[in-house]
Amino acid sequence: MGVAGLVAGIAGLAVSYLASMALAIRESPVVAVGEAVIQLVPGAVIEPAIDLLGHYDKPVLVATVVVLLGVAFVLTGLAARVAWWRALVLIGVVVGIGLAAVMTRNGATPYHSLPSLLGLVAWIGSLAALTRPLQQPERTPTGRRGFLFGLIGVGAVTAAAVVVGNLLASARKRIERSRQLLKLTQVTEPEVDGASQLHLDGVTAFQTPNDEFYLIHTAIVVPTIEPDEWRLRIHGLVDNPLELSYADLVEREFTEAWITLNCVSNSVGGDLIGNAWWSGVRLADLLAEAGVSPEADAILQTSEDGWTCGTPLAAVTDDRNAMLAVAMNGEPLPIDHGFPVRTIVPGLYGFVSACKWVVDIEVTRFDRFEAYWTGKGWSEQAPVKLSSRIDVPSSGDSVTAGTVRVGGVAWAQHTGIQSVEVALDGGRWQPAALAGVPSDDTWVQWVAAIEVPPGDHLLRVRATDKAGTVQTGVQRDVAPDGATGWHEIDFTATED
Ligand SMILES: Nc1nc2c(c(=O)[nH]1)N[C@H]1C(S)=C(S)[C@@H](COP(=O)(O)O)O[C@H]1N2
Ligand SMILES: [Mo]
């Protein structure tokens, strides 16, 4: 039974490792525990240890964690023999330590708990498969044979998980290295104009750092593409089909801009939105070179992983500087954000424009294709909707009654924000002050000072765009083409 516990434990570890690699989570739970140990152990102990072990410090640490785990696994097997619940408690503690190490890291989200949880599931399944044959009153030859088959099965799953996990990890590492070696001479560093950044704690920063930028993609394992191997075909209703390599692309003239990207699935007040400094090549120039036929009204973009989106031709050929982006916030696109090349079109939701890992652009007509999300309850065309959000206070906050500064962001990419107003408890709309913006393609921060008496309150916000449209209070769901309605928050004001 000790063997069963050990084998099941290793299967669980292998699955958690595979899950970490497949989900592009840098640390598997074992590594996270190792790093947590380094953090928790006082320097007085760790430094002499590092000194003693030299370069072997990390492997020794990971090996120690692994040996301790092995002992725990054997114990779970022995415990399972007496009573399953004992084994479960024991493994619960082990997984709990792993989870604690993973979840206390900076920027951990519930998503990061998946490898530990999947590992737990694999462990329970393996231990059940291995112990069932042994749980007969007497050890029979069939029981032993069943155990042997169980061992082979669990062993095969373990080996497969490790092999696939390694392949994924090494592909990603290789591409990450290529990415870091890239020198994109035309890319400049983002500079946030002081006027774009108001000083009110809690208001979303004008620039969203890459590692905080929301991520949406259908791929479970994201494409890993060497820049040298990347090709883009531009074809369809054109006079001269083009095929571009990465070198061809980055030799061309660049355009750079602050552009706010948001997801159609962002609900009112949600955070599936970010603002970055993008650098790349104007799509309009490439399409002009290809010579677009007058009957075309769309481009069908396809990514390496087969995802597709349809974008109005007008939006990628007008003066809004839709681009094939190669850099985000001054560095080569992060792998998860579409490395080496993705499309960015100001003023359209991501699902109809912002193709990551783009490899194919067909100039065509909307009546000739159906893109990935079209028909699955989402619209064929989807310009961004005028919207605004309250960042401070946040719902449930308590503030001191009197003059209260409230703030947030508002956006109407490619149209621009004219004004923002707030209303307390359904009262009159009061104007907010707006920060500066480099163009109409970004969100804008707003702040207002309002008089708040003691008690419970409801604050709402609405924006007006530069075309004079006032943001509607009619609440609509995100499907099929973006949510509408005013963002409202509850807060309490107390006398000081
Ligand atoms: N290849 C690919 N590109 C894609 C998607 C996808 O699922 N696959 N999702 C789109 C959607 S719905 C959005 S909102 C944006 C999100 O871009 P980000 O993950 O860089 O924030 O990418 C778009 N591009
Ligand atoms: Mo999206």
Verbal overview:
The protein has 496 residues and is α+β, with helices and mostly antiparallel strands. Helix content is 34%, strand content 23%. The chain is built from 10 helices and 19 strands. It has helices at residues 2-22, 29-40, 43-53, 57-82, 84-103, 114-131, 141-181, 246-251, 283-290, 313-317, and strands at 231-236, 242-245, 255-262, 273-282, 298-303, 308-312, 323-328, 331-332, 342-344, 358-364, 387-392, 398-400, 402-411, 417-424, 430-431, 433-434, 444-452, 455-465, 487-494. The mean pLDDT is 91. Molybdenum atom binds at residues 216, 263-265, 350-351.
Sequence-ordered SSE layout with sheet pairings:
Blueprint: H1 2-22, H2 29-40, H3 43-53, H4 57-82, H5 84-103, H6 114-131, H7 141-181, E1 231-236, E2 242-245, H8 246-251, E3 255-262, E4 273-282, H9 283-290, E5 298-303, E6 308-312, H10 313-317, E7 323-328, E8 331-332, E9 342-344, E10 358-364, E11 387-392, E12 398-400, E13 402-411, E14 417-424, E15 430-431, E16 433-434, E17 444-452, E18 455-465, E19 487-494
Parallel strand pairs: 1-10, 12-19
Antiparallel strand pairs: 1-2, 3-4, 4-7, 5-6, 5-10, 7-8, 7-9, 11-13, 13-17, 14-15, 14-18, 16-17, 18-19
Helix pairs in contact: 1-4, 1-6, 1-7, 2-4, 2-5, 4-5, 5-6, 6-7
Bound molecules: the ligand Nc1nc2c(c(=O)[nH]1)N[C@H]1C(S)=C(S)[C@@H](COP(=O)(O)O)O[C@H]1N2 and molybdenum atom (MO).
